DNA sequence: AATTGAACATACTACCGAGTATGTTGTCAA
DNA sequence: TTGACAACATACTCGGTAGTATGTTCAATT
């Protein structure tokens, strides 16, 4: 419960989603796990999954292994929990604009913006999601983790399909144009996801500053997709 | 010297650069190291640096540790050698368009295309370069590796600056427009680099197919930077 | 033919890290 | 007050991996 300054932002983000109408996190994240998930996400981002030891996470928590293994069965279990929370952040982020009745182009813009902002504001979790996808794209895992990993990828694919649908609608409306849909989607996500890698919170940074970054990424993507610039 | 089908492409790429006028690879890569570097690059891409054991590389080589440690002092040494070769591929790729006298916009297009194509055709090496940058952005390494890692980052920064210069020229010419130059460069490189992650060689694929992918990425980037579409 | 050294293979050590087994503390119910 | 259980901490085991020490082969000198 005692969150120091460096963890406060993420703890707030988790609390925000947990407080949202969705029942997703309520089922997954219990009280005693929040701090562990936050610190684990930071470790996984800082050193990568393979290089992060459970002792690293425990050290950042100011406690020992015992606490972690009390709540999580294994290192992989902890990792997947982090990644799944990350995906839930994303669903929560695009939820409103997804339900919108606006034209496809406007929905696409809003979803892209919300997604990108989620990358920035829940960066450590998103970095873990990324690593999970990377591990999957290769294919070197044990059968136990396989199942859990496949579930994560399935979630990710479903999420991706939401964007795909809106993209196709916007394309049908003539608002954007691209050659290969698969490549276009890859490039869009890579651009929107890129803050995962290069974003660093500045001291004194405001929420508006972060929105500004997300806006630039979104503009870049829409222009890249051949959208006519808005006024 | 006996390269099987799966390694032939990369071996050809190394031979191509080694045969080029530049003296870069001649100094770095010796005969007995080529196969090792190729297999190491593949392993690092497949499992990541941390998860790759020297025995993994040896197994892929069809030999044992002894061979690797005969040429490379440590695992880190091998990794940096791979990454440095990767950077040399990139310099070689953009060399021609860099020296061009054409307008900045045209040079930028050529460089972006060449860079992207290099990502595709030397993918495993570029993936290692990426990992090196990632490790650096965090900052958890031993002092010995630090020096070597800093050298790699310096090379990478210098390479990035080449693009920065041309981008600014093109911007001054009014050919492109963007808000924050740093973000614009990040988004450009992320898009051009993205094949590192999602490209997979298809059976029966031609060099033209790869060029087509690079072209789509380049078009996306230039459009993202606000360039007026060419005829 | 003997020597030398490069290019490996084999056999080992030392350590680190995941997972476990067990102890300790506090709290709450009965 | 006393179990009883949750929430940890402590102290171990044990497998994997980087690195080393030492053999072995072969080809080129001399």
What keyword list fits this structure?
12 helices; mainly alpha; homodimer; 0% strand; Tetracycline Repressor, domain 2; 231 residues; DNA-binding; 74% helix; globular; disordered N terminus
Q: What does it look like?
A:
Two copies of one chain form a homodimer. With 231 residues, chain A is an all-alpha fold. Chain A has a single domain (5-224), classed as Orthogonal Bundle (Tetracycline Repressor, domain 2), CATH 1.10.357.10. Helix content of chain A is 74%, strand content 0%. The first copy, chain A, is built from twelve helices and no strands. The first copy, chain A, has helices spanning 5-19, 24-28, 34-47, 54-61, 65-71, 75-98, 104-121, 123-138, 143-172, 181-193, 195-198, 207-224. In chain A, helix 3 (34-47) packs across helix 4, helix 7 packs across helix 8 (123-138) and helix 10 packs antiparallel against helix 12 (207-224). The longest helix of chain A is centred in the last third of the chain and has 30 residues, at 143-172. Chain A is globular and about 55 Å long. In chain A, 42% of the residues are buried. Mean pLDDT of chain A is 88; it is low at 1-10 and 18-27. At the A-B interface, helix 3, helix 8, helix 10 and helix 12 of A face helix 3, helix 8, helix 10 and helix 12 of B. Chain A binds a DNA duplex (30 and 30 nucleotides) through helix 5.
Detail the topology: elements first, then pairings.
The structure is a homodimer of 231-residue chains.
Chain A: H1 5-19, H2 24-28, H3 34-47, H4 54-61, H5 65-71, H6 75-98, H7 104-121, H8 123-138, H9 143-172, H10 181-193, H11 195-198, H12 207-224
Helix pairs in contact in A: 1-3, 3-4, 3-6, 3-8, 6-7, 6-8, 6-9, 7-8, 7-9, 7-12, 8-9, 10-12
Chain A binds a DNA duplex (30 and 30 nucleotides) through α5.
């Amino acid at each position: 419960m005692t969150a120091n300054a460096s963890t406060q932002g993420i703890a707030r983000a988790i609390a925000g989603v947990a407080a949202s109408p969705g029942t997703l996190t309520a089922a997954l994240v219990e009280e005693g796990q929040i701090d562990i998930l936050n610190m684990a996400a930071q470790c996984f981002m800082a050193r990568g999954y393979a290089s992060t030891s459970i002792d690293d996470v425990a050290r950042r928590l100011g406690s020992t292994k015992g606490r972690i293994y009390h709540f999580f069965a294994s290192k992989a279990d902890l990792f997947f929990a982090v990644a799944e929370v990350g995906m839930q952040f994303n669903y929560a982020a695009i939820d409103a604009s997804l339900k919108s009745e606006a034209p496809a182009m406007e929905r696409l813009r809003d979803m892209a913006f919300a997604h990108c902002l989620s990358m920035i504001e829940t960066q450590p979790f998103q970095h873990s999601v990324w690593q999970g996808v990377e591990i999957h794209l290769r294919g070197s895992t044990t059968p136990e983790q396989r199942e859990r990993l496949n579930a994560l990828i399935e979630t990710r694919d479903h999420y991706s399909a939401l964007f795909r649908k809106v993209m196709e609608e916007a394309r049908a409306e003539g608002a954007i144009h691209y050659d290969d849909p698969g490549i276009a989607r890859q490039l869009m996500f890579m651009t929107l996801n890129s803050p995962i890698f290069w974003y660093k919170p500045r001291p004194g940074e405001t929420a508006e500053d972060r929105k500004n970054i997300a806006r630039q990424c979104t503009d870049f993507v829409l222009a890249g997709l051949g959208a006519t610039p808005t006024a």
